[in-house]
Each structure stands twice: as structure tokens, then as C-alpha cells.
Design goal:
A five-stranded mixed sheet has the order 5-4-3-6-7, covered by helices on one side. Strands 1-2 form a two-stranded antiparallel sheet. A hairpin with a 2-residue loop joins β1 and β2. By secondary structure, the chain is α/β, with parallel strands linked by helices. α2 crosses α3. It has two domains: 135 residues, Endonuclease III, domain 1 (Orthogonal Bundle); 90 residues, Ribonuclease H-like superfamily/Ribonuclease H (Nucleotidyltransferase, domain 5). Bound molecules: zinc ion (ZN). Zinc ion binds next to α7.
Length: 251
């Protein structure tokens, strides 16, 4: 399986992106624009006599490597890390090598690696590349562990029930501040109880009275979290030793 980014597709997209930019933008360099800037910087270094030349030399320097001249960011005193300007044609191979080197790392890693070495590789170019990487896209679309995708189906009347609380503290009715919602998973039959607190004893008392009317549920689940259902179950155990319940928190 080829998991690399399709080069032709990348070039097509990058060309469309650059076509939407002004010709004098300072991030995207055609070979022609790069060569022109390079010779301008070289002559500015020989004779820096205009404000334009001065501004150029603040942004650019020229470094000769194996008889080839490269545009770089002027080194600050005491610094040694060189940042290169790259031309559009180099983008694909640089992104490919970096992305492979960091084993399909995400945009933050990519940007960090690239910006250490190159001056003009933009966020949008990195995102364009990552969005075309099949391996990264598969990684993102894979279902996350721990999330239940399949809906739960109950076949028995008391196999599964849900207990949740509605918080009415801001709109209390006298001493009642919560509503307990108890729902049978199979029949969807709902019972509501007013509660003065959300303490486990009080909730458990009402759950137990429902159990005693309709039968005990084998599984008790709650959107209020694991700790909540654990506490209710231990309270119910304290009141009714022989009951068998399995906790299941659904988040
Ligand atoms: Zn990737």
C-alpha cells in the first residue's frame, strides 16, 4: 500500500494555492523570483546605499554552499542555526522527508521541525500536505478506543436501567432541588422523583423503591458518571444485601 502523498496531486493543489496569492508575497518563491532576490541581496551586500537595500539585508543573507548560493535569514550574533528560504519546487521533497523522518507526526511537530530549518514554509502548506497523507487521514478516521458505537439493545424487561439527575438548584421547588429520572432501557418507561439533595443515600432510596415496585435492574447505568453510580450501588447493597447489580457508566 502506498501511504505517501501523491506528488502530482500535491503540486496541483499547491499551484492553486499560490495562484491566489499576490506576486509580491513573501512566502512563495518561484525559481525566477528567488534568483532575482538572490542577485539583489548580493549587490546590496556590496553596496548598501538605499533604504530598500538596507531592508533586504535585514531579511536576507546569501550563503555559498559548494559553489551554490542560497538565500538564508541573516544569522543573529552568537547563533549558528541557519534558516533557508525555499522555492516552491522544493516544497514537496522537503515536506516528504520531514514527514517521513518524524514518522507521520502531526502539524505541531511538522511546523516545529520545518521552521527550525526553513524560513518560508507556511502553516497552510503543511496542512495541505497532511490532508493529502493517506496514512495520517486513516489514523484520524479510525474509531477511538473506549467509545461505544453500537447502540445497546435490551431484550429483558429489567436487564438495564438508567438513572440520571436533573439539576434544578437554580429553579428549586421549595426544598426540592433535583429530579431523579429512572428509565427502563427496554420499555423506555420513565419514572420521576423529586429529590432534596443528590446524595447517594437519597438517590439509592428512590431507586430501591422503584426496584421494589417493578423489579431490580441487572445493570444500572448513569450519565452522571462512574462515581455516582458506584455510590448509588453501594448504598443499595447496604439496604438490600442480596441484590445483584452491575455498574455501567455511559459517557
Ligand atoms: Zn502522514
Amino acid at each position: 500500500m502506498n501511504t505517501a502523498v501523491n506528488r502530482d496531486l500535491f503540486l496541483e493543489k499547491i499551484n492553486a494555492l499560490i495562484a491566489g496569492k499576490r506576486a509580491d508575497n513573501c512566502f512563495y518563491y518561484t525559481q525566477e523570483k528567488y534568483s532575482k532576490m538572490l542577485s539583489e541581496v548580493v549587490s546590496a551586500k556590496i553596496k548598501c546605499n538605499t533604504p530598500l537595500n538596507y531592508r533586504r539585508l535585514k531579511r536576507f543573507d546569501v550563503l555559498k554552499i559548494n559553489d551554490k548560493e542560497k538565500l538564508i535569514v541573516p544569522l543573529k550574533p552568537g547563533k549558528t542555526n541557519i534558516q533557508y528560504y525555499v522555492i516552491n519546487e522544493e516544497l514537496y521533497s522537503i515536506l516528504y522527508e520531514t514527514h517521513t523522518k518524524i514518522r507521520h507526526g502531526g502539524r505541531t511537530r511538522m511546523l516545529k521541525e520545518l521552521q527550525a530549518e526553513y524560513k518560508n514554509i507556511t502553516y497552510e502548506v503543511v496542512m495541505l500536505y497532511l490532508n493529502l497523507c493517506k496514512q495520517c487521514q486513516m489514523k484520524h478516521s479510525a474509531p477511538k478506543k473506549g467509545i461505544i458505537v453500537k447502540p445497546m439493545v435490551s431484550s429483558e424487561l429489567n436487564s438495564r436501567c438508567q438513572v440520571d439527575l436533573i439539576d434544578l438548584q437554580s429553579n428549586r421547588d421549595g426544598e426540592y432541588k433535583f429530579i431523579m429520572v429512572y428509565q427502563n432501557h427496554l420499555t423506555k418507561f420513565v419514572q420521576l422523583r423529586p429529590l432534596k439533595t443528590k446524595r447517594a443515600e437519597e438517590v439509592a432510596h428512590h431507586v430501591l423503591s422503584t426496584f421494589l415496585t417493578f423489579g431490580a435492574s441487572a445493570i444500572l447505568q448513569s450519565d452522571n458518571g462512574r462515581e455516582f453510580s458506584n455510590q448509588i450501588i453501594s448504598e443499595i447493597y447496604a439496604m438490600w444485601k442480596d441484590v445483584k447489580i452491575v455498574r455501567h457508566s455511559q459517557t
